[in-house]
Amino acid sequence: MKKYYILLFVFVSVAIIFSSCNKYEEGPAFSLLSVTKRITGTWELKETVINDTVVDLNDMIDMMGEAELDSISDMGFDISQINITAVKVTFEKDGDGNFYFAISLSGFPFTRTEYMTWQFDEEKENVEITIMSEIQIFEILRLSKSELWLRRIEVQDGLTTTTVMKLEKEKD
Asked: How sure is the predictor about 69, in pLDDT bands with cuts at 50, 70 and 90?
């Protein structure tokens, strides 16, 4: 009986220790894989939440602002005919990667891949992504072997915008 209480004490102690060591706000509470091993791979954007509202990828075109939309329209494209079909990010373990998006314009498919670099901050709580010389820093909310949730908070002209991107890892 004494062994039973000792085992129970050890089990409860370990559970308490690991539950209080949650690195990311949304988990996981514990992982045997390193942070780098978990983030390495190709991730597909499945959901975008802006200020607590789920936003369809195609609605984000309307959020670009009139200046950006005018420049696209000036090239002869009808904005209403653009359909975003996929957004993917690949993180390679050496800090390189790719940002990929696919659109359909009036039924014709187009894709674009941009080279990027990435790195964790010292605590591995944020990831810094550089695409086309533009650096963006995202807070990691969740990083499991199959889910990656990133948050970016921007303040512009006194208005705060919180964007959460939920990505799923592609199977190898």
From this structure: very low
Q: Is the pTM of this model over 0.85?
A: no
Could you tell me if residue 122 is inside a domain?
Answer: yes
Q: Which residues contact 50 (CB under 8 A, 6 or more apart)?
A: 63, 161, 162, 163, 164
What domain count does the chain have? 1
Show the tokens assigned to 130. 């550089």
Beta strands in 13-133 (DSSP E): 41-50, 53-55, 82-91, 96-105, 108-120, 126-131
Question: Which H helix or E strand runs over 36?
Answer: helix 35-39
Q: How far apart are CA 38 and CA 113, in angstroms?
A: 22
Question: pLDDT tens, 70-93?
Answer: 555 566 666 677 888 899 999 999
Residue 31's domain is classified under what CATH number? Answer: 2.40.128
The Cα–Cα gap between 149 and 144 comes to 9
